[in-house]
Amino acid sequence: MSDRAVAEGARNGLFQQASLEFMRYFEDPTFMFSVPLELGGTLFQRKVWAALRRIPPGTTCSYGEMARRLGSSPRAVGNACRRNPCPVIVPCHRVVSANGLGGYAGATGGPLLARKRWLLAHEGVIVDG
Q1: Does residue 86 contact residue 38 with C-beta atoms inside 8 Å?
Q2: DSSP states along 58-108
Q3: Does 81 qualify as catalytic in the annotation?
Q4: What mean pLDDT value characterizes the chain?
Q5: Using CA atoms, how far apart are residues 50 and 121, in angstroms rounded to an integer?
Q6: Cβ neighbours of residue 1 under 8 Å, at least 6 residues apart?
Q7: Model confidence over 40-65: pLDDT tens digits?
Q8: How far apart are CA 65 and CA 78, in angstroms?
Q9: Distances in whole angstroms, Cα of residue 78 to Cα of each of 102, 114, 120
Q10: Closest CA to 89 of 47, 20, 34, 127
Q11: At how many degrees (to 10) do helices 43-53 and 74-82 cross?
């Protein structure tokens, strides 16, 4: 079997795993994704993204709290969330501001913020703002 065929099979397997995990998450909001990811990004971004994957469904963490855990600033955490290449699997929607919802994918309103609100509601979290 060629290296290309092996790589293609691995990609197909990961795609199938991700597809199944998305279906599980939308059926059961307590489901946590486990599909392996190689996201690139800076060392700090990868630290934030790894921390995001540890936030349990149905719970939130503030940008400030996440920053304290990582020895950083809330703005830096928000910037890493904004650059998250794999939302939902890397659940940046679970990071909120100290005063409400915060932003989502760099947006502070409109359809992206509505998506964050929906994801949180799907998980049983109600956030004002």
Answers
A1: no
A2: T--EEHHHHHHHHTS-HHHHHHHHHT-SSBTTB-GGGEEBTTB---BTTBS
A3: no
A4: 91
A5: 23
A6: none
A7: 999 999 999 999 999 999 999 999 99
A8: 12
A9: 9, 18, 17
A10: 34
A11: 80
What letter represents residue 45's amino acid? Q
Q: Report whether pLDDT(4) > 70.
A: no
The structure's pTM equals 0.88
The one catalytic residue among 61, 81, 86, 92: 92
Distance between CA 23 and CA 45 in Å, rounded? Answer: 27
Tokens 């060629």 -> residue:
2
Q: Which long-range contacts (CB under 8 A, 24 or more apart) does 115-124 make?
A: 119/88, 119/91, 119/93, 120/60, 120/93, 120/94, 122/26, 122/29, 123/29, 123/30, 123/57, 123/58, 123/94, 124/29, 124/58
Q: Does the pLDDT at position 2 exceed 60? A: no
